[in-house]
Amino acid sequence: MKRFGTSMRDSGLAMFTTALLTALFITSATFLPFLIQGAVAHPETRPAPQAYVVPPTDGQYPDPERCLGNCSWIHDPAIWYENGTYWRFSTSGNIAIATAPSIGGPWRYQGALLHNGTSIFVTDTQDIWAPSISKRGDVYYCHYSVSAMGFQNSSIGVATSLSLFPGTWQDHGNVGLPLSEKYNLIDPYVFQETPNSPIYFTFGSFWDDIFQIELFPHDDMIAFGNWAQQNSRINNVIRNSTADATVVEGAIMWKEAEFYYVFYSVGWCCNTPVKGLAAEGDVYHVVVCRSEAPTGPFYDKDGKDCLHDSGGTTILASHGDIYAPGGQGVMVHPEDGRTVMYYHYVRQSVGYEADQFFFGYNYLGWQDGWPVVVVA
C-alpha cells in the first residue's frame, strides 16, 4: 500500500508539472513579444552617481553646480579659502558664516560674524548686507553694508579678526565714507593685486551706480572715508544712464591675463509674484566690463563705454528654473586652478522669498579675453 500510494503521488506530480509547463509556454508565446517591446521602448534608467552629475543646460547657460548642506537662505556670498577649508560669508543673520571642505559642500553653518550686531545705526528696519573678506598680514577684514530695501542713506562698516571663526571678530563701525545723492553706501569690495599694489575699494547701488576708491598699498582699511573724500578719491566707474534703468550694484574686481574686470549685478533682485515680478529684461543678472587699467575706462564686449554709454556684457541670466542670479564673486579653484564664479539665485519651482535663495556656482572659461559660464 505504501508503494502504491507513492506511485500515485509521483504520477500526479508529473501530470501537474507537465500542465504547468504547457501553460507557461503558451503564455510566453502569447505575451513575450509585448514584454520585449516594452523593455526596448521603456528601458530602466538609473541616475548617475551624484558626484558625477553634469549640470543641465537650458539654452545659453548651464545650471548651477551641485551644492550640499547649508545651501539656502544665501544672499551676496563671499568666499575665502584657506588651509583646505572654504569659508562662506553672506547677508543677514549678522553676517552668516558657513564652512565646507569643497566649494560644493557639504556646507555647515558656524554662526554669526557679529554676534551683537553692528554699532552702526541707519534705520529701524536695517540689516547687514554683502560682506567682503580680505586679509592684510595676519589680520582678516570684513567690510559690510548696513541698509534696508529702498533706503539710500546706508553705511559701510568694517570688522577685523585674527581668525575667521565666529566670536573672534571686532566691530569697528563706520569707515567714514560720506553720504551723497550720487550713490548708496552698500556692496563694498576690496581688490588688491599684490601686497605692494594699490587697493581698489568699490561700492554702490542705483543712483550713479558703481564707485571706486584708490588707496595706497598700506593705507588704513578701517577709517579711510574722510581721507578719500578730502583727496577726491571717490570716482564713478560704472553707470547705466538709460531711461528707466534698473539697479546696478554688487561690483567686484578681478584680474585675468592683461585685463581688469568688473563683474556686477543688474536688475531687480528680490521681487515676488505677490508684489509682481520684474519684466523679463529687468530681472537680476550678471554683467561684466573690462579695462587695461584697474581704474578704467571699462568697456563691454561690443566696445561700449560702461561709464558714459551704459555698456555691459551679460554673462549669466535667468534660464529654465533658475531665476535672478547675481550677488556674485569670483575666485580661483584651489585644486584645479580654474576660475569659479559663485552667486545667489532663486529656483522658481521652490519660491521667491528671502529664505528661498540658493547658493550657486559655475566655472568660467575665457574666450577671446571674455568670461563665459561653462559646464565643469
TrEMBL record:
<keyword id="KW-0378">Hydrolase</keyword>
<feature type="active site" description="Proton acceptor">
    <location>
        <position position="76"/>
    </location>
</feature>
<keyword id="KW-0326">Glycosidase</keyword>
<dbReference type="Pfam" id="PF04616">
    <property type="entry name" value="Glyco_hydro_43"/>
</dbReference>
<feature type="site" description="Important for catalytic activity, responsible for pKa modulation of the active site Glu and correct orientation of both the proton donor and substrate">
    <location>
        <position position="187"/>
    </location>
</feature>
<comment type="similarity">
    <text>Belongs to the glycosyl hydrolase 43 family.</text>
</comment>
<protein>
    <recommendedName>
        <fullName>Arabinan endo-1,5-alpha-L-arabinosidase</fullName>
        <ecNumber>3.2.1.99</ecNumber>
    </recommendedName>
</protein>
<comment type="pathway">
    <text>Glycan metabolism; L-arabinan degradation.</text>
</comment>
<dbReference type="GO" id="GO:0046558">
    <property type="term" value="F:arabinan endo-1,5-alpha-L-arabinosidase activity"/>
</dbReference>
<dbReference type="InterPro" id="IPR023296">
    <property type="entry name" value="Glyco_hydro_beta-prop_sf"/>
</dbReference>
<dbReference type="InterPro" id="IPR016840">
    <property type="entry name" value="Glyco_hydro_43_endo_a_Ara-ase"/>
</dbReference>
<feature type="active site" description="Proton donor">
    <location>
        <position position="249"/>
    </location>
</feature>
<dbReference type="InterPro" id="IPR006710">
    <property type="entry name" value="Glyco_hydro_43"/>
</dbReference>
<dbReference type="GO" id="GO:0031222">
    <property type="term" value="P:arabinan catabolic process"/>
</dbReference>
<dbReference type="InterPro" id="IPR050727">
    <property type="entry name" value="GH43_arabinanases"/>
</dbReference>
